[in-house]
């Protein structure tokens, strides 16, 4: 869940009133947000780096607010305020408009070289915008939040914002050999080739995480203006030339990526959020993007979509009885402008470009429920009549566990994952003989394989409890995993029972007696006869293994 | 009836150690030699006697006298004993040595001959280092740094008085009070003296004083019963303040005991247990079937354990897979879909299931194939896996509890009603619900309960109605809703034991 950090006083100013922390927490809860932490820059630095480093840092109160992962429209102060103000019916949701420029439209031409690395691009212009320090910071922060979330750390989409007045269109989005790309990147004082930059950024704590996206590709994506000035080398870095500042009035925004849908969503979010500060509020200047096949599109899409939902469907899914008019009012409070049409039971809902999360009627139902207030919904019990059954294997497990404890053995609960060594080398078995399932990406050696026997877990438990008075009598009834090509996933679980007796003298008869007791409980007679059980000698660790009992 | 009284030191607190019947200390001492002597001395004494003095007179450990006092006390009103504590100064081991052989500084002084001694040589003496600086500050010796073969130490005075030794000898002779407070504290700082608290008993005759004490029986034996001798024998009273011996038994694991309780709650509510005995799952059942897009962060290598072997699922229900693919990439069933290129290879990737909802998806798919539809209530409690590094707050595997109800016309109000009943059985009655986001439920709600200890609302579970994009491709009827909730077993406490 993304966390958005906003200055409390700035937030309250924008909301037009103040709240106590408790009141604001309550409002967040109702709206589906979570006031996660109340802090300040100073507090954060002192927590992370110590009091000394925090000296002189700002002690302006910050609210850290957890936002649902699909609500990209709430990832900045502007969006949060708009969402809450509409929710509280203090303002109406703005209507976002795409307008054609007075002069020539800004053009971004995609060349075919991009196809293999980053085939999509979209663009738009924010005209006559007015930044302040706070607005500028929020603009940068929103890009960062989008990059981390919907853009999947820039792999799917990367955003570049530029001072349009420093550039001259049309722009070209192409891909070139890294050695052929040379420019002065953001916050550097000289030009570097792309190869040099990739080396420099290997030690950059922020940028090093994005290098892998293009690192081993023959061509790197790059955007030029008509004079050959580099706007950006997505998804790594922008050029310094077109850097936006507090004085920038006209912003050219490009989003490039591998996922066209997400690129369009990201562009829509940025321009809807920050067109608030344009001279013509909530209007966005169109830009034209020409694809390699010659087709040209105009962005941002800022598409409004109409959905039709029957009022009784909403009532039926939520479990309330509201009139269609009331439901339309509730939805409107969620930035979904709605009205009752047709037979008086139909609600027509307008999905704005900010709400890409609304993809089905069930999303609309949820918003109606949120506006109604989850905690105002009458709780009822479903009339569903059913007879309960236990899963037979678990039922047997439950019964046996109690008898094992009654027989004086103590239950252990050990991890199902372990190291290769645990199930092979340490038991004198070759790993290839175990039929073990192997994990491809463990962070530590403790999670290389799924266990093929319960024994290592019990032995580890004994090792960790060597100081306890003897004897130690342990058991576990749980699942092991082995490869099995007859199963759809190529592996299956087996339920095992394993018991270990640890004392100063070996006491084989004790574990043998336990086995006899288990067989007695399971109604399995001793002896060679069919349906009976016998113990046979075996090699190495299996000697111990057969002291346990394998069920199934 | 066994009347043994384990003493505090019998180690009865250790589970598994209680095999041997603890002996009954004290019982044998009542007629031991020390107790006898004590009673005889007491008979002759005027008023009473001190346990420490008696020990010194008899030449036994003080503890032996204390033992005798306690065993006599246990017999009733034979004696009375009053606990007294006195403070006393004692020499430490080093203090003893100095009292015997003189202070370090005195020993240094004595080892310097009139013609002087090389400082390096002096430092090698056992008392050299400590003694040198003290002797210097006492101005008993001096150092001549200009000597030809290195600094040399000479006597300054012809003789000196070793006050430290003298004072320590006074303390040893029991005359510590003759020292000034300041002198004592200086010696204590030098770790030559310690103040010890001595607990002694002032013993006097009790109301039932007698020098002939008959031995009390610790245990009732079959012989006593058959001979009837138990009628005349005095029995030692039980010691109720001592800990009992824990029964020799096995134990169930506490977390799995909680699992049993949760199973019980579900069964009481009419929920049938789903099979979950497959830790290995394909990405298809773990994610795609749940309408979780292929670029979702949970599908990242950082969060999920993927398999190297077997790396891919061998079979998938292809008809159903195609419906899932279409729903993700193009939408359908009233959905816009996610509009991306859905890849079969991605769905085939095997993993360690990240939630038991994968098993619920399989169960619902089986349900959807059975015609006509019959309403169900399902539950499961089993292991799930996340690619974490173990630490105090992160586990790579934990147990997920999941409940699912599928029926015609289920509502959010029904979900809340079922949750209320479920949590009431856990002893949690104050609930509230927060809108939330889950990829596969909509509407979704997080369940919060008020924590009396923390004095705040804490999240106890997650819930919602499964999305139509998940249910309809399975083939479930359109007007069937499925409500579901999940919580982690590791975060639960044991439900309270009901008191009738």
Automatic annotation (TrEMBL), chain A:
<keyword id="KW-0963">Cytoplasm</keyword>
<dbReference type="GO" id="GO:0000287">
    <property type="term" value="F:magnesium ion binding"/>
</dbReference>
<keyword id="KW-0547">Nucleotide-binding</keyword>
<dbReference type="InterPro" id="IPR040659">
    <property type="entry name" value="PhetRS_B1"/>
</dbReference>
<protein>
    <recommendedName>
        <fullName>Phenylalanine--tRNA ligase beta subunit</fullName>
        <ecNumber>6.1.1.20</ecNumber>
    </recommendedName>
</protein>
<dbReference type="GO" id="GO:0006432">
    <property type="term" value="P:phenylalanyl-tRNA aminoacylation"/>
</dbReference>
<dbReference type="InterPro" id="IPR005147">
    <property type="entry name" value="tRNA_synthase_B5-dom"/>
</dbReference>
<dbReference type="GO" id="GO:0005524">
    <property type="term" value="F:ATP binding"/>
</dbReference>
<dbReference type="GO" id="GO:0003723">
    <property type="term" value="F:RNA binding"/>
</dbReference>
<dbReference type="InterPro" id="IPR045060">
    <property type="entry name" value="Phe-tRNA-ligase_IIc_bsu"/>
</dbReference>
<dbReference type="InterPro" id="IPR041616">
    <property type="entry name" value="PheRS_beta_core"/>
</dbReference>
<dbReference type="Pfam" id="PF17759">
    <property type="entry name" value="tRNA_synthFbeta"/>
</dbReference>
<dbReference type="GO" id="GO:0005737">
    <property type="term" value="C:cytoplasm"/>
</dbReference>
<dbReference type="GO" id="GO:0004826">
    <property type="term" value="F:phenylalanine-tRNA ligase activity"/>
</dbReference>
<keyword id="KW-0479">Metal-binding</keyword>
<dbReference type="Pfam" id="PF03484">
    <property type="entry name" value="B5"/>
</dbReference>
<dbReference type="Pfam" id="PF18262">
    <property type="entry name" value="PhetRS_B1"/>
</dbReference>
<keyword id="KW-0436">Ligase</keyword>
<dbReference type="InterPro" id="IPR009061">
    <property type="entry name" value="DNA-bd_dom_put_sf"/>
</dbReference>
<dbReference type="InterPro" id="IPR020825">
    <property type="entry name" value="Phe-tRNA_synthase-like_B3/B4"/>
</dbReference>
<dbReference type="InterPro" id="IPR045864">
    <property type="entry name" value="aa-tRNA-synth_II/BPL/LPL"/>
</dbReference>
<comment type="subunit">
    <text>Heterotetramer; dimer of two heterodimers formed by FARSA and FARSB.</text>
</comment>
Automatic annotation (TrEMBL), chain B:
<dbReference type="InterPro" id="IPR040725">
    <property type="entry name" value="PheRS_DBD3"/>
</dbReference>
<keyword id="KW-0479">Metal-binding</keyword>
<comment type="subunit">
    <text>Heterotetramer; dimer of two heterodimers formed by FARSA and FARSB.</text>
</comment>
<dbReference type="GO" id="GO:0005524">
    <property type="term" value="F:ATP binding"/>
</dbReference>
<dbReference type="GO" id="GO:0005737">
    <property type="term" value="C:cytoplasm"/>
</dbReference>
<keyword id="KW-0597">Phosphoprotein</keyword>
<feature type="region of interest" description="Disordered">
    <location>
        <begin position="1"/>
        <end position="29"/>
    </location>
</feature>
<keyword id="KW-0436">Ligase</keyword>
<keyword id="KW-0007">Acetylation</keyword>
<dbReference type="InterPro" id="IPR036390">
    <property type="entry name" value="WH_DNA-bd_sf"/>
</dbReference>
<dbReference type="InterPro" id="IPR006195">
    <property type="entry name" value="aa-tRNA-synth_II"/>
</dbReference>
<dbReference type="Pfam" id="PF18554">
    <property type="entry name" value="PheRS_DBD2"/>
</dbReference>
<keyword id="KW-0648">Protein biosynthesis</keyword>
<protein>
    <recommendedName>
        <fullName>Phenylalanine--tRNA ligase alpha subunit</fullName>
        <ecNumber>6.1.1.20</ecNumber>
    </recommendedName>
</protein>
<keyword id="KW-0547">Nucleotide-binding</keyword>
<comment type="similarity">
    <text>Belongs to the class-II aminoacyl-tRNA synthetase family. Phe-tRNA synthetase alpha subunit type 2 subfamily.</text>
</comment>
<dbReference type="Pfam" id="PF18552">
    <property type="entry name" value="PheRS_DBD1"/>
</dbReference>
<keyword id="KW-0030">Aminoacyl-tRNA synthetase</keyword>
<keyword id="KW-0067">ATP-binding</keyword>
<dbReference type="InterPro" id="IPR040586">
    <property type="entry name" value="PheRS_DBD2"/>
</dbReference>
<dbReference type="Pfam" id="PF01409">
    <property type="entry name" value="tRNA-synt_2d"/>
</dbReference>
<dbReference type="InterPro" id="IPR045864">
    <property type="entry name" value="aa-tRNA-synth_II/BPL/LPL"/>
</dbReference>
């Amino acid at each position: 869940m993304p966390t958005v950090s906003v200055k409390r006083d700035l937030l309250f100013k924008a909301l037009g009133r103040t709240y106590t922390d408790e009141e604001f927490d309550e409002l967040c809860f109702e709206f589906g947000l979570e006031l996660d932490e109340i802090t300040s820059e100073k507090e954060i630095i002192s927590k992370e780096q110590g009091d000394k480093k925090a000296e002189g840092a700002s002690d302006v109160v910050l609210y850290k607010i957890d936002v649902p992962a699909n609500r990209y429209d709430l990832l900045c102060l502007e969006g949060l305020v708009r969402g809450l103000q509409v929710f509280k019916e203090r303002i109406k949701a703005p209507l976002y408009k795409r307008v054609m420029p007075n002069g020539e439209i800004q053009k971004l031409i995609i060349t075919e070289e991009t196809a293999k690395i980053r085939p999509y691009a979209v663009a738009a212009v924010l005209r006559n915008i007015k930044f302040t320090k706070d607005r500028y910071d929020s603009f940068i922060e929103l890009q960062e939040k989008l990059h981390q979330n919907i853009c999947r750390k820039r792999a799917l989409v990367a955003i570049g914002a530029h001072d349009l007045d420093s550039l001259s269109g049309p722009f070209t989005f192409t891909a070139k050999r890294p050695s052929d790309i040379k420019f002065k990147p953001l916050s550097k004082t000289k030009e570097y080739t792309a190869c040099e930059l990739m080396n420099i950024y290997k030690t950059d704590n922020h940028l090093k995480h994005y290098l892998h996206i293009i690192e081993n590709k023959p061509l790197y994506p790059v955007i030029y203006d008509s004079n050959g000035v580099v706007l950006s080398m997505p998804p790594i870095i922008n050029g310094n030339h077109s850097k936006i500042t507090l004085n920038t009035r006209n912003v050219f925004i490009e989003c490039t990526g591998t996922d066209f849908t997400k690129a369009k969503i990201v562009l829509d979010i940025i321009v809807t959020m920050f067109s608030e500060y344009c001279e013509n509020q909530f209007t966005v200047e169109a830009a034209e993007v020409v694809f390699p096949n010659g087709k040209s599109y105009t962005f941002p899409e800022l598409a409004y979509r109409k959905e039709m939902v029957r009022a009784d469907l909403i009532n039926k899914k939520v479990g309330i009885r509201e009139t269609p008019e009331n439901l339309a009012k509730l939805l409107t409070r969620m930035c979904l402008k709605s009205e009752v049409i047709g037979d008086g039971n139909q609600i027509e809902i307008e999905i704005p470009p900010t709400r890409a999360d609304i993809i089905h009627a069930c999303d609309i139902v949820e918003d109606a429920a949120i506006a109604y207030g989850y905690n105002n919904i009458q709780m009822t019990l479903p009339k569903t009549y059913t007879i309960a059954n236990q899963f037979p294997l678990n039922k047997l497990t439950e019964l046996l566990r109690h008898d094992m404890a009654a027989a004086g053995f103590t239950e252990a609960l050990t991890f199902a994952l372990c190291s290769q060594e645990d199930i092979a080398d340490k038991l004198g078995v070759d790993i290839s003989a175990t039929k073990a399932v192997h994990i491809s990406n463990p962070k530590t050696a403790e999670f290389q394989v799924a266990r093929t026997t319960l024994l290592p877990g019990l032995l580890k438990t004994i090792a960790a409890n060597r100081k306890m008075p003897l004897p130690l009598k342990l058991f576990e009834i749980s699942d092991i995993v082995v490869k099995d090509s007859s199963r759809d996933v190529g592996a299956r679980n087996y339920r095992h029972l394993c018991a270990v007796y640890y004392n100063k003298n070996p006491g084989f008869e004790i574990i043998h007696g336990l086995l006899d007791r288990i067989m007695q409980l399971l109604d399995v007679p001793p002896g060679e006869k069919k349906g009976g059980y016998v113990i046979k000698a075996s090699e190495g660790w299996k000697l111990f293994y057969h002291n346990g009992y394998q069920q199934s | 009836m066994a009347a043994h009284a384990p003493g505090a030191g019998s180690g009865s607190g250790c589970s598994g150690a209680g095999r041997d019947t603890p002996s009954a200390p004290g019982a044998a001492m009542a007629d031991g030699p020390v107790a006898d002597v004590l009673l005889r001395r007491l008979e002759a004494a005027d008023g009473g006697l001190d346990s420490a003095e008696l020990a010194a007179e008899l030449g036994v450990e003080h503890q032996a006298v204390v033992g005798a006092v306690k065993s006599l006390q246990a017999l009733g009103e034979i004696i009375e004993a009053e606990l007294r504590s006195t403070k006393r100064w004692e020499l430490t081991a080093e203090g003893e040595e100095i009292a015997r052989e003189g202070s370090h500084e005195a020993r240094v002084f004595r080892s310097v001959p009139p013609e002087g001694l090389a400082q390096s040589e002096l430092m090698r003496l056992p008392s050299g280092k400590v003694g040198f600086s003290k002797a210097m500050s006492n101005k008993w010796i001096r150092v001549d740094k200009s000597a030809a073969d290195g600094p040399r130490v000479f006597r300054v005075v012809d003789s000196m008085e070793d006050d430290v030794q003298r004072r320590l000898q006074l303390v040893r002779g029991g005359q510590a009070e003759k020292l000034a407070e300041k002198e004592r504290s200086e010696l204590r700082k030098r770790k030559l003296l310690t103040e010890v608290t001595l607990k002694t008993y002032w013993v006097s005759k009790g109301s039932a004083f007698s020098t002939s004490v008959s031995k009390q029986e610790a245990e009732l034996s079959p012989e006593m019963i058959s001979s009837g001798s138990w009628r005349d024998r005095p029995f030692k009273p039980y010691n109720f303040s001592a800990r009992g011996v824990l029964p020799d038994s096995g134990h169930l694991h506490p977390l799995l005991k909680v699992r049993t309780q949760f199973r019980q709650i579900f069964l009481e509510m009419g929920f049938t247990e789903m099979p979950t005995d497959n830790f290995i799952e394909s990405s298809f059942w773990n994610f795609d079937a749940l309408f979780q897009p292929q670029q979702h962060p949970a599908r990242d290598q950082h969060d999920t354990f993927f398999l190297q072997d077997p790396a891919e699922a061998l079979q998938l229900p292809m008809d159903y897979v195609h419906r899932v693919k279409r729903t993700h990439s193009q939408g359908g069933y009233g959905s816009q879909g996610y509009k991306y290129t859905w890849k079969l290879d991605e769905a085939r990737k095997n993993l360690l299931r990240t939630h038991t909802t994968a098993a619920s998806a399989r169960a619902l798919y089986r349900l959807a194939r059975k015609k006509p539809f019959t309403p169900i209530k399902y539950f499961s409690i089993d292991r799930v896996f996340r690619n974490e590094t173990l630490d105090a707050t992160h586990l790579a595997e934990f147990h997920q509890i999941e409940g699912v109800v599928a029926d015609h016309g289920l509502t959010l109000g029904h979900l809340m009603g079922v949750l209320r009943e479920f949590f009431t059985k856990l002893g949690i009655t104050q609930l509230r619900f927060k809108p939330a986001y889950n990829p596969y439920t909509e509407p979704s709600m997080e369940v919060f309960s008020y924590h009396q200890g923390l004095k705040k609302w804490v999240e106890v579970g997650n819930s919602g109605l499964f999305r139509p994009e998940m249910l309809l491709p399975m083939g479930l009827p359109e007007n069937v809703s499925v409500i579901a909730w999940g919580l982690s077993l590791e975060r639960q406490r044991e439900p309270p034991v009901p008191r009738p």
